[in-house]
Amino acid sequence: MVDDLHKNNVHLMISVWPYFRPGSPVYDDMQRRGFFVDKTIAPSFHPVGQALYDAFNPMHENITGS
What we know:
alpha+beta
């Protein structure tokens, strides 16, 4: 599929946002481990409590715990 796009001079870009919403098992686990940099405190584009994950911390090599 990507090759077909390139042949038509269309390029693909993937955007990954390091935000997690409260209430999921992944959020709870990451919260417990202290993996978040900051959380939203006022409603805006992101809901209150949504947390920003610190992807550069070497302690986060295995965030799933498996």
